[in-house]
Amino acid sequence: MSRKKLILTDLPDKVIKNLNGFRTNFKQKTMNLFSLFKRELYRPWKNILFMAFLSGLSNSVILFITIYYIGNPERQGKPAKYFILFIIATLIFVISKKYALTKAAAFTENLIKNIRVRVVNKIRNSELGFIENIEDSYIYTRITQDTNFISQSAIVIVTSCQNLLSVIFCLMFLAWLSLFSFLFTVGAIGAATVVFMSYKKRIRILMDESTNEEARLFGYLTHILNGFKEIKLNRRKSDDLFKQFENSANSTECLKVKTGNHFSNDIIYSQAFVMALVAVVAFVLPSITSVSSQVTVMTVMVIIFLIGPIELLMTNIPIFSRANLAIDNIYKLEELLDKEGGNGCEYNGEYNGGEFKDINVDKMSFSYNDADGKAIFKLGPINLNIKKGEHVFIVGGNGSGKSTLLKLLTGLYYPEHGNIILDSELVSKPDYQRYRELFSIIFTDFHLFDRLYGLVNIDKKMLNDLLKLMELNKKTQYKKGRFTNTNLSTGQRKRLAMIVSFLDDKPIYVFDEVAADQDPQFRKYFYEELLKDLKAKGKTVIAATHDDKYFHVADRVLKMDYGQMQNL
Hints:
Elements: H1 13-40, H2 42-70, H3 79-125, H4 128-133, H5 136-177, H6 179-198, H7 200-226, H8 228-233, H9 235-288, H10 293-339, E1 358-369, E2 375-387, E3 391-395, H11 402-409, E4 417-422, E5 425-426, H12 432-436, E6 439-442, H13 460-469, E7 478-479, E8 482-483, H14 490-504, E9 508-512, H15 520-536, E10 540-544, E11 556-561, E12 564-567
Helix pairs in contact: 1-6, 1-10, 2-3, 2-5, 3-5, 3-10, 5-6, 5-7, 5-10, 6-9, 7-9, 7-10, 9-10
């Protein structure tokens, strides 16, 4: 009997479209994940995949030995031979699968560690403006939830490779038993797969929506935690925020339930399909073909064995989908970070002298823009000269541009126009990190670290003396490389931040309302003693303040008003 080779053009357009969609969908489900492993840990995964395929092969051999022995009574007189082969195949299966699973778990966790370290490194190298404008929950979700999805995929890859090879060898064995049964089974599985994959696009959309909604949910939780004082004082605000959180939680639940229902329907569909296939092979094919009852029994056994691997492959597809979506999310975050300098820029070393003469700001300007690029606040142009050892106070109302000016002066923002000149040399982007090392800063929204990061050979006596001087020695101590307590009042936290700033011993100190939230006695001590001591040491101080009572302490007082500067 001649066989006609089936070519793609012989198929109806709808079938071709479905097949092409399946091929594209399959590549999307697997290529991102495998590309990730190839990119991050190529060599180890070659060995892991080989062992996974070996376990799938040995698993199929176990089935072949069993069916081949049971299906022929003549062979049952020599059980020892087949039993030994069965034991050998089982040992190979156990050893290869254990190796694949344990190594996959270990290497995947190493991969996750590498991704997290790389992303966090890019975060710390990115620009302040980007970090200020991106939601914390977005970054947390990428580094925690998305990396966990990738972590789960390690076992899935191993089991999928094993099950895929089991399916392939079972189909080969089926072809050896009965070519007609093989063609019928492959045709049925192929048609069912095309139908099955046609529903995956909707699941992908639901997964995207649920991931985005969950990120919004974490955002509302962040608002509740960070704005706890505010919502505690305003019940309507608290109720409104909680209502938004509750609505987001309900939306997340609804989307995940819909997604779960689709996955459940897929699993039930795959099981019902295999059962129907068994029924057709057992009850229908014998009546229309010349297949013997012995071959029919072995064919049914093979198909029943296929239920497990096919079901696991179908079940693993959602995990592949989640992992691939997670990979896309992480790479998108990395692309954003790379655009914002997260890949690191070359800079001219680290500042290590402290002997600068002056800083000149030449026609520096900066603006905040809305979504359409229209400026909603503009600072400058500013001309300013700050000499070594000079104490400069900056005053102005809220929103006048004081904090923005300080961020520009310290190099945390790049000016849109104008330049910063250090000791008659232009500060270009490669010089910015070196320039930033001049400053020790305490902004109004400062973060208090529990450790003295970056400081080595700490003078414990000096630290304890400062704690006592700031009246914090009874509140916290520095033991085992960390402060024992940072849960302090706002004023105490600022004083502890000043201690850390003094230990940094930088040439320029920038204080943004650090005397606020302090009692009158310490405020007087700050202006008349601490600043006087810094002056004696030749330290430069730039301070934003509203304390006009102590303006006489400064060498100069500058006023900011609607982004413009003037001398007082």
